[in-house]
Amino acid sequence: PLASIPQPLALTLVQASSVAALAITILLWVRPHTGRLPGAALVLGCSFAGAELIALGQFGVAWALIALSGTLVVARRDRWALAGIVLGIGSIRFVNALPIGIALLVFAARHRGWRASICFVLGAGSVLLPPTLAVTLLDPAWSTEYLAALRAYPVGTASSIGIGGSVLLLVVPSLLCSLLFRRALNVDVCAASLLVAAMFTPMSAASSYNLVFGLPVLARLATRVPVWVLGSLVALPWIALVLTGARPVACLAADQLALLIAVTLLMRTHDSARPLIDGGPDTGIYASLSSPDLPVGGRHRR
Q: Could you read off the pLDDT of 203-219 as tens digits, one per residue?
């Protein structure tokens, strides 16, 4: 549809949609504690990765972030067919969706039984198979053409380490996300899984916009630390931008460092945080859509 309107207007619509998508994501993950929500939301809105995403018009990434967040919300409610459907929608960013999907499938198989696993696969297949079959009928060679395009991509992992190396970079986050989900689909663990999947994205190259998948980690951390700590982490890539003369690699490294610190702080405070099952329901929009933590065995434990 955007091809039928003037390019400047199309870009404006894409950028406006990206702003809305990131705002919704922040609201989904931040818990409104006293007066902390406005400050935390404003700080998260200054994300370097988010700014780059908006500037480049990468709405597909923002859409995938919302969809994969929704996948985790629905999986926490043990609605596995719907979780598969939402995952299929989020597969617009396949490299981010695959580790989350594999980890949830492993969790469902181990702790919810074969029925949940089948429902999850069928849900995802109902979204992915029809368009895939349609495209295959129209262009049977699309898969080989796609792989050739990845190899020829001017900037990215696939062009430097090959398809095999890129596949390996998908296996590693899938294993790490499976380890995160080994006991329960806790809210903090779900946030961390989105970042883990993004940190190994084969096509990230020197662009930081893919690190918007770290926003859920920063949002969850905002409930544990003062706003100035959150602001310091968000400011790191901006400082690198100024000090290095806008070198993309330096900004990317600074953003990765900030998110590494953030996820470390989140996991260190995770056990000491008030459990949702014991402390009553979470007060955030995200938790209002989800159930209390679902531990192994499918029963709530104290």
A: 555 678 989 999 999 98
Q: What are the angstrom distances between the C-alpha of 222 and each of 22, 161, 219, 280? A: 16, 37, 5, 19
Count Cβ atoms within 10 A of the Cβ of residue 61 and give its class: 0-12 exposed, 13-18 middle, 19 or more buried.
Answer: buried
Amino acid at 229: V
What are the tens digits of pLDDT across the range 78-92?
Answer: 999 999 999 999 998
CB atoms within 10 A of CB 216: 29
End-to-end CA distance of the chain: 51
Residues 6+ apart with CB under 8 A from 131: none
Write the secondary structure of 99-145 as one string of H (helix), E (strand) and C (coil). HHHHHHHHHHHHHCCHHHHHHHHHHHHHHHHHHHHHHHHHCCCHHHH
How is residue 78 written in tokens? 């043990």
Q: Please state, in angstroms and rounded to a whole number, the distance separating the CA atoms of residues 129 and 136.
A: 10
- Which is it for the CA torsion 144, 97, 169, 54, positive or negative? positive
